[in-house]
Specification:
Elements (H helix, E strand, L loop, with lengths): L14 H5 L1 H4 L9 H6 L8 E4 L3 E5 L9 E5 L11 H22 L3 E6 L15 E6 L6 H4 L10 H11 L10
Antiparallel strand pairs: 1-2, 2-3, 3-5, 4-5
């Protein structure tokens, strides 16, 4: 057999997504929203770091960087303006906590925090609002990412989740004004 000189990165866990098996499992709501499935305790809910009253914090299954979290309201809403006052406060509070916990656990040098509202904004799951909390380090977009189009993640998602969940209640957060 001759080599085509292509590099291959095996990711067999993605096959369920490719085949659409998650949508056919009977766990997803009718609209097939993975965040609604996670909120209901279905598949991938093992990646939840913390559950609040109206929102939860979950590791991104396809992270940009190690520790990439998302803060997600339980309720299926697409736009920030659709959140209730209580949901808005909890999403903001959980985002602050996610920053503090990630700083305590991973010592990132910075963060990208934000929402992608609507499909044209880059949001792949625009129908269910979610706020990204992405830790950043100098050099995290190195030659492997830029030239090799390959992201190196040095830790299993389950291990990252365990570290963040264990630190959730003890990481220091700024004092109230």
């Amino acid at each position: 057999m001759t080599s085509d000189r292509l590099q291959r990165l095996w990711a067999p866990y993605r096959m369920a997504y490719v085949r659409g098996e998650e949508a056919d499992s009977g766990v997803l709501p009718d609209d097939g929203c993975p965040f609604c499935r996670i909120a209901a305790g279905g598949q991938q809910s093992e990646l939840v770091v913390h559950r609040g009253e109206t929102a939860f914090v979950v590791l991104n299954l396809y992270p940009y960087n190690p520790g990439h979290l998302m803060v997600v309201p339980d309720r299926h809403v697409a736009d920030y303006t659709e959140l209730t006052a209580d949901e808005t406060v909890e999403v903001a509070t959980l985002t602050q906590r996610a920053l503090a916990v990630t700083r305590a656990v991973s010592q990132p040098q910075g963060f990208n925090v934000g929402l992608n509202l609507g499909n044209v904004s880059g949001g792949s799951l625009a129908q269910h609002l979610h706020q990204h909390v992405v830790p950043r380090w100098a050099g995290d977009a190195n030659f492997m990412t830029v030239l090799g189009q390959t992201k190196i993640l040095p830790q299993l998602l389950e291990d990252t989740r365990d570290l963040l969940a264990e630190a959730w209640d003890s990481a220091p957060v700024s004092k109230e004004a």
